[in-house]
Amino acid sequence: MAMTTQHPDEKLLDYIGGHLDEENRRAVEAHISACRDCAQTVNVVSHLRETKPQPSTAHPDVSQLAEFFYSKSPGDQSTAAHVALCQSCADAISEYARAESAACRYEPSFVKKASVSDKAWQMIREWEESDYARPRPENRERSQTMLVKLAEVLSRSKEELEQLSHQVRISGGFKHEDTVSVIIVDKLARLRGVAIFEKTTTHEGESLLKPLEETGRFDNKPFHVLLDFGEDNLVMVSDVIRHDTIRLQRITRANTSLRRVNFFIVEE
Amino acid sequence: MPEGTGAEILAPENWTDEELVDTFLARLSTDRREAHLCFETIIARYHWLINHIVRSTHFRFPAWDSQEDVISRVVFKVYRGLAQWRREGKLSSFIARIATSELIDTYRRVGRDKSWTPRPAADPDSDMPTAVDLAPSRELSPEAAALRAQQTALIEQLLDDVCRDWKDSVVVNEYIIGERNAKELSEKYEMTEDLIYQRARRLKVRLMKWLNERGITSADALLTGGSKKI
User: Fold this and answer.
1) pTM as predicted
2) What's the confidence (pLDDT) of residue A216?
3) Residues of chain B whose pLDDT is less than 50?
4) Which chain B positions have a beta carbon within 8 Å of A120's beta carbon?
5) Cα B75 from Cα B40, distance rounded (Å)
6) Are residues A149 and A261 in the same domain?
7) What total of structural domains would you count in chain A?
8) What is the DSSP secondary structure assignment for residue A193, as one 8-state letter?
């Protein structure tokens, strides 16, 4: 039978739960009688709600749960099915969601009173004295390597970058005021292109960058700001783009002024 | 990265997180006192966040493993793990991840300890049957258990294929199967209600595609293996 109305997606679940009034219930039933997909959905979801199947696998350990929450790609799918069926693991995921949301909003400020507790220092000292306490600076090296590579892009492709930026602005009709050029590179820091972002300031004085066309293309992509304080004093600040928005940190240096700022997005 | 004298090290409040962590890691093997100063500065910046995450959790902890103890362990684990901070993300996210993992780990450990229960203890002199005595046996016959295992495996395969990330999984768990409303989910998982509806719609499309590809037209067919195209 042909479907005559738009799928009542949200109402479908209310219908299965018996939460619709008479009028809406009839409308949904009329739709279901004509739409095989929605009838199938009602059938399968009703059965899942009645049987409440439990996962057959053991709870993922904490590191697997964290990886599942923070991963940008599907990754380990057995965790996805487990969390879809396990209430305690879904609750654990909600703790990550809450913490990540607080972390994204958090503006660090130096608080003199807050100190490392004696108990924490005791654990740190015991660990430092143990045989397996080995500092592993791999990520620091990775950070330094990226800084060097991005600086190379700037010196190597200076003219190309200026041309690209000019072309993008001309073709998009973007004005210079309140916009910045963001350089797109791949993971090996090879130049891919330039995108124009709009710079705004919130009521709280926070600076934000947003792409002029919000396509979600840059969501969850690593973002680096390269600050040049002169005399080879380069500082890199990194973040991840969330909801098409970049929050800029305010970085200052005593006795020196900022000469140039460049923005980079790393795409796969 | 700032280089130089102890006088500079004593005032690292204006450094970026990257500089603090780089200096902390560099000094760990050469001058632990300066490394500790950097670490104290990092904790001074992020103590509020750690405190907030641990104290606002929905989990309950017994007195012998208090929130103060959890916070101390989080601080220790941040110290131990700073070298693993990937610079693609903010330090606040890295610290939040450690704090939450420690919370969940503690909660699971506490849950395994039979000496602690969140419910009040029953009167030991009472002749009344306990809740455990009254509970019906949950043991299935071997045939029913085998059928249940087969059904669960198929449902897990379906969910493996249609859930792309944690948001899909919790929408299936709480909204589609669990009958919570979008507003409750939005508050619990810090997602917008629109996103929940959008995810539910996409999940429905993928679910239908999955079923159609296998010639499954009803829940009965799903739970008995469909038309064997799987």
Assistant:
1) 0.66
2) 74
3) 1-9, 118-121, 226-230
4) 71-73, 75-76, 79
5) 10
6) yes
7) 3
8) E
